[in-house]
Description:
Elements (H helix, E strand, L loop, with lengths): L19 E3 L6 E3 L16 H10 L1
Amino acid sequence: MPGVAGAVQVKMRKKADLPSKLCQTCGLPFNWRKKWEKVWDEVKYCSQRCRSNSKSQG
């Protein structure tokens, strides 16, 4: 309903438009996820498995 007071409009993005990074452990690209929205600059690994492997490798 257009014109409703307090309505929040969310701009939808295509998956291809989302930012991506390379995993520091496996080197594969991974895309932005909603759960990383506030900490995207700190995200280094594509998965928990890669995160644990990086710590065990030294």
